[in-house]
Design goal:
The complex is a heterotrimer. Chain A is mainly alpha-helical. In chain A, 70% of the residues lie in helices and 4% in strands. Chain A has 13 helices and four strands. Helix content of chain B is 35%, strand content 25%. Chain B is built from ten helices and ten strands. In chain B, the strands form two sheets. Chain B has a six-stranded mixed β-sheet, sandwiched between helices. In chain B, strands 2-1-4-5 form a four-stranded antiparallel β-sheet, covered by helices on one side. In chain B, helix 5 crosses helix 6 and helix 6 runs parallel beside helix 7. The chains are: A mainly alpha, B alpha/beta, C mainly alpha.
C-alpha cells in the first residue's frame, strides 16, 4: 500500500481527485503565484528569461526521470523544486516547475486539467518556496561552498515531505476518497521523508557538481565564489560562457548578475508565510463548511456521525479547533485579504530589491 | 583605394579584453570588399570567435571600430547591423530554436517587421537558396546535422544580409554534406567571412585568407599563397591535413 | 512519469477536429473537464453519455481506440489507487464477491475512476489532433501569459536535445561498466545531472545570443494568427455544450424523482 501511494504521488493528480472548492482555490493560489513569479523572473533574467527558463525546464523534465532507490523495491523520482530554486533562483524556479507541469498535463495527459492548480501549487510553488526558504536560512548560518551544499541537502530534504504535507492537508479538506486522513498523512509523510533524503542527496551533489565547474551558474551561491580563469582555451569569467565547442560567447554588459544587496530572504519569508496563511484560511473556511459529496452521501445513508468520528476526529483538530471556530464568512474574508496583502507585499519588497540593485 | 560603400566590412584597430582583464584582441585591422569570400584562420585560443562576436555587436570593443557597409557598429545601430551581418553559429541547435524550420527561418525577417505574403516569400526564397525547401514544415530535430547546418544558413539568408559570417561551417559534416554546403556557398552572391580550421575548405571556397594569431592579424593574402608557406603555418599552429597537396590552380575555379 | 512521456501524442491527420483552431479545442476540453468534474457521481448514465460524446470526437478525428488506450497507461497508478479505496475506505461496509468493501469507498473509487478517465481521454484526443506548437499558439490566444508560452515553447523544442544528452551520458557511463543499482551510485548520477544542467544553461545562453543576432529585442514576433470563425467555435464548443446539456438533464431527472 505504501508503494502504491508513493507512485500515486509521483504521478500528477488527475481530475476528480479533489473537490471543486479545493481545485478552484488551489487554482487561484497557483495563478497568483505565477503572476508574481513572472514579474520576478523577468527582473532576474530580463530578455533572456524565455530561452533560459525554457532550457532549465527541459533540464528539470529530464532530471525528473532520475529514479533512485529509496527502500527495498521502492524507488523515488526527483521532484526538482529545491534544485531549480537553488540553481536559477526562486522566481524562475517556480516558472520552470510550472511549465513542466503544464506541458505534462496538456501534452502528455499526465495530470488533470482541473487539477492543474493543485499540481502547480504542491509541486511547483510549495517545493520551491520551502526549498528556497530553508536554503537561505541554512546558507546564512553555514558559509562557503560546503555550507551551500549542506543547505542544498536540507532544502531538498524538507521540501519533499512539505509537499506531501500540503497534499495531505488538501486531501483532508477536499479529497474525494474517504480514507483515514491520519493514515494518508502518515504514509505520505513517512515515504516522502525517505524520498526527501534521496532528493536531498542528489540535489546537494548536483549543486556541488555545478559549483565545482561553473559557480557563476548557481543562483544560490551568488557572490560567494571568485570567477574562474581558464588559460589555454578561451577565458571563462563571471558572465562569460564557454561553449561546448571551441569558442567563447560573452554577453554584452556581462556584469549583470543580480547582487544580493537587499534581503530577498524577507520577500520569501513573506511569501512563505502568505502561502501558509492562505492555506490555513482555506482550511478553516472549508472545514466549517463541510463541502464534499461525501457528506451528502453520509447524510443520505445515515452514517454522518460515524464519518465525523473517523475523518474529522482522529487528527489533532485541537490546533485547528480555534481557527475552525471563527465564523465561516470572517475566515473567508481574512483569507482573501491576506492573499492581496501578501501578493502586494512581495511585489513591493521585490521592487525595492530591484531599485537597490541598479 | 576602395570607397567605403564598396566595403562590406571594415575593422579598425579593434582591441578587446574580457571582464576579468585578460586581453584577447590587440588591435585587429582588416577590410573586406563586397562580394569577396574570405577565410579567417588561426589556432585555438587566437580569438577568432571573440572577433566575430564584435561584428554584430554582441561584444563591444574597448578600442577601435567596426563598420558594416558604411554603418558603424554602435548601440543605436544594432538592429540594422544585425540585419546586415548574418552570423551562423557553429552549433545549429543553438540557432534553430523554433518548433519548425519555417518558424526559424521566419524569425529574423519577422523581427524586422516583415509579415504576411512578403514573409512567406522571404522564407521560401531563403530555403530554396540552400536547397532545403522540402523540409519547411518539419521540426529541426528531425533533420540530419548537414540539413540543420544548411537550414541555419537559411535563417540568416532570409534577412538579406550584407555579409554572411560562418563559424566552422564544415565541422562535423560528412563528405557529401560538406560538398553540398560548399555548392550552396559558392552559389550565393553575398560577401562571406568564414572562420575555419578546415584549410582545404578554405582553399576551395575562399580566394583570400586572414590569419589571426595572438590577437592580431599576422597574415592577409591569397589563400593559396598562405597555405603554401609551410613555415608561416607552422608558426601559428596551422597544419594541412595528411596527404593533402595544394591542387594546381586550373583544377578549381 | 518515465518512459511513457516520450510517446509523441500527436497523430497526423486531416479531420474536422484536426482543422479546428487550437484555442477552440483547448477551451472545449477545459470546459468539458469542468462539466465532468462537477457532475455528482451518482448519475451513472451521465458519465456514460460523456464517454459516448468522447467516442464521437474520436470517430470524427479518426483516432483509433487502441491509440487512446495505449496512451491511457499514464493514468494507471491512480486507477490502482481508485480500486484500493473501497478496500481501505471508512464507513459502512458491504460485501462484494465475499470481499468487505466500504460503501463510501466504492462511491469515491467510482468517482475518481470515471472523472480521471474521462479527463485523460479528452486530453489525449486534444493532443492527438493538435501539434504541440499549435497548442501553444492557442494557449497564447486564450490569454495565457506570453512569457509562459515562450518558455514552454523553448522547453518543447529542447526537450529532446536535453534528454538525448542525458541518454548519451548514460550510455557513456554504462560503456565504462557503471550501472546505478544502489545508494552508493548516486554521486555519479548527481555529477551527470550537474553536467547536464551546465550544458542546458549554456545552451540557453547561446540560444539567446542567436536570437539577439537575428534581431530579437525582447518580444517574440507574432508570426501566426489563427483566429476561429463562429462556426469553428460552435463546432468545438459542441462537446462541452452537449455535456452540459447532459448534466442539466440529469439534474432535472434527479429533481423529478
Amino acid at each position: 500500500m505504501r508503494h502504491r501511494l508513493t507512485k500515486g504521488f509521483a504521478v500528477h493528480v488527475p481530475d476528480g481527485f479533489f473537490d471543486a472548492a479545493v481545485s478552484v482555490s488551489a487554482g487561484a493560489v497557483a495563478a497568483a503565484g505565477l503572476a508574481v513569479c513572472l514579474r520576478g523572473a523577468r527582473r532576474e533574467l530580463d530578455d533572456r528569461t524565455a530561452p533560459m527558463a525554457g532550457l532549465v525546464a527541459a533540464f528539470i523534465f529530464a532530471v525528473q526521470m532520475l529514479n533512485f532507490p529509496v527502500a527495498a523495491g521502492t524507488s523515488g523520482h526527483l521532484l526538482g523544486g529545491a534544485l531549480a530554486a537553488i540553481l536559477v533562483g526562486p522566481y524562475t524556479g517556480v516558472l520552470c516547475m510550472a511549465v513542466v507541469l503544464l506541458v505534462q498535463c496538456v501534452f502528455f495527459a499526465d495530470g488533470g486539467l482541473t487539477a492543474l492548480g493543485i499540481n502547480i501549487t504542491i509541486m511547483g510553488i510549495v517545493t520551491v518556496l520551502v526549498g528556497w526558504g530553508v536554503f537561505r536560512l541554512v546558507a546564512r548560518l553555514a558559509k562557503g561552498k560546503g555550507g551551500v551544499t549542506v543547505a542544498a541537502f536540507l532544502a531538498a530534504l524538507v521540501s519533499v515531505p512539505s509537499a506531501a504535507l500540503v497534499f495531505s492537508a488538501l486531501f483532508w479538506v477536499g479529497g474525494t476518497a474517504p480514507i483515514e486522513v491520519s493514515a494518508v498523512a502518515a504514509a505520505m509523510g513517512g515515504v516522502h521523508v525517505l524520498i526527501g533524503i534521496g532528493e536531498g542527496v542528489i540535489t546537494a551533489l548536483t549543486v556541488g557538481a555545478v559549483l565545482a565547474v561553473r559557480p557563476d551558474l548557481v543562483y544560490g551561491a551568488r557572490g560567494l565564489t571568485t570567477p574562474l580563469v581558464l588559460r589555454g582555451a578561451e577565458e571563462a569569467t563571471a558572465g562569460a560562457t564557454v561553449g561546448a565547442t571551441a569558442g567563447t560567447t560573452v554577453t554584452v554588459g556581462a556584469d549583470e548578475e543580480p547582487v544580493a544587496t537587499r534581503s530577498p530572504l524577507r520577500a520569501f519569508l513573506l511569501g512563505g508565510l502568505g502561502l501558509t496563511l492562505v492555506l490555513a484560511g482555506i482550511v478553516s473556511f472549508f472545514a466549517s463548511a463541510n463541502p464534499d459529496g461525501l457528506e451528502a452521501v453520509a447524510e443520505n445513508h445515515g452514517f454522518l456521525d460515524q464519518a465525523t468520528h473517523h475523518v474529522f476526529g482522529s487528527w489533532a483538530l485541537a490546533d485547528y479547533g480555534d481557527v475552525g471556530g471563527i465564523p465561516v464568512g470572517v475566515a473567508g474574508i481574512i483569507g482573501v485579504g491576506l492573499v492581496l496583502l501578501i501578493a502586494g507585499g512581495v511585489a513591493y519588497a521585490a521592487r525595492g530589491r530591484e531599485k537597490a540593485r541598479v | 583605394m576602395n570607397s567605403p560603400a564598396v566595403n562590406s566590412l571594415e575593422v579598425n584597430r579593434l582591441a578587446y579584453a574580457y571582464p576579468d582583464g585578460t586581453q584577447a584582441l590587440f588591435g585587429v585591422d582588416f577590410t573586406i570588399r563586397r562580394g569577396e569570400r574570405v577565410a579567417l584562420l588561426g589556432p585555438n585560443g587566437a580569438g577568432k570567435t571573440t572577433l566575430v562576436m564584435h561584428l554584430n555587436g554582441i561584444l563591444t570593443a574597448g578600442h577601435g571600430s567596426v563598420s558594416v557597409a558604411g554603418t558603424p557598429v554602435r548601440k543605436d545601430t544594432l538592429k540594422e547591423i544585425r540585419q546586415r551581418v548574418g552570423l551562423v553559429f557553429q552549433d545549429p541547435d543553438d540557432q534553430l530554436f523554433m518548433p519548425t524550420v519555417r518558424d526559424d527561418v521566419a524569425f529574423g525577417p519577422a523581427n524586422s517587421g516583415v509579415s504576411g505574403a512578403e514573409l512567406e516569400r522571404a522564407v521560401k526564397g531563403a530555403l530554396e537558396r540552400v536547397g532545403m525547401l522540402e523540409v519547411i514544415d518539419r521540426p529541426p530535430h528531425h533533420l540530419s546535422f548537414g540539413q540543420r547546418r544548411r537550414v541555419a544558413v537559411a535563417t540568416v539568408l532570409a534577412m538579406e544580409p550584407e555579409i554572411l559570417v560562418l563559424d566552422e561551417p564544415s565541422s562535423n559534416l560528412d563528405p557529401a554534406a560538406r560538398r553540398e554546403l560548399a555548392e550552396v556557398l559558392r552559389s550565393l552572391d553575398v560577401t562571406v567571412l568564414m572562420v575555419t580550421h578546415d584549410l582545404p575548405y578554405a582553399l576551395e571556397l575562399c580566394e583570400r585568407s586572414l590569419i589571426l594569431s595572438d590577437g592580431v592579424i599576422v597574415a592577409d593574402g591569397p589563400t593559396r599563397e598562405l597555405l603554401a608557406d609551410a613555415e608561416l603555418l607552422a608558426r601559428h599552429r596551422l597544419e594541412l591535413p595528411y596527404g593533402f597537396a595544394i591542387p594546381a590552380p586550373a583544377e578549381h575555379g | 512519469m518515465g518512459a511513457g512521456h516520450h510517446h509523441q501524442l500527436y497523430l497526423a491527420g486531416d479531420s474536422v477536429v484536426h482543422r479546428l483552431p487550437p484555442q477552440c479545442k483547448l477551451l472545449a476540453v477545459a470546459a468539458f473537464a469542468i462539466v465532468v468534474v462537477a457532475t455528482p457521481r451518482e448519475r451513472f448514465w451521465a458519465f456514460g453519455l460523456y464517454a459516448v460524446l468522447l467516442a464521437g470526437v474520436a470517430l470524427a478525428a479518426r483516432v483509433p481506440l487502441t491509440y487512446v488506450l495505449r496512451r491511457m497507461v499514464v493514468e494507471l497508478p491512480f486507477v490502482l489507487f481508485a480500486f484500493l479505496i473501497p478496500v481501505i475506505g471508512l464507513g459502512e461496509r458491504t460485501s462484494v464477491l465475499g470481499v468487505s468493501l466500504s460503501v463510501a469507498g466504492l462511491w469515491a473509487g467510482w468517482n475518481i475512476l470515471a472523472k480521471a478517465t474521462l479527463g485523460v481521454v479528452a486530453s489525449i484526443l486534444l493532443a492527438a489532433t493538435t501539434e504541440p506548437r499549435v497548442i501553444l499558439i492557442g494557449a497564447q490566444r486564450l490569454r495565457l501569459p506570453s512569457l509562459l508560452v515562450q518558455i514552454a515553447m523553448f522547453m518543447l523544442r529542447y526537450m529532446d536535445v536535453i534528454m538525448d544528452e542525458m541518454r548519451r551520458m548514460r550510455v557513456a557511463r554504462e560503456s565504462r561498466g557503471f550501472e546505478a543499482r544502489n545508494f552508493r551510485h548516486i554521486p555519479v548520477i548527481a555529477r551527470s545531472a550537474g553536467a547536464l544542467f551546465i550544458r542546458s544553461y549554456e545552451r540557453g545562453e547561446r540560444v539567446h545570443l542567436a536570437m539577439l543576432s537575428r534581431g530579437y529585442s525582447g518580444r517574440m514576433p507574432m508570426m501566426d494568427e489563427i483566429s476561429g470563425s463562429v462556426g469553428q467555435w460552435a463546432t468545438a464548443l459542441a462537446l462541452p455544450g452537449m455535456a452540459l446539456a447532459v448534466l442539466g438533464l440529469s439534474a432535472v431527472q434527479g429533481l423529478s424523482l
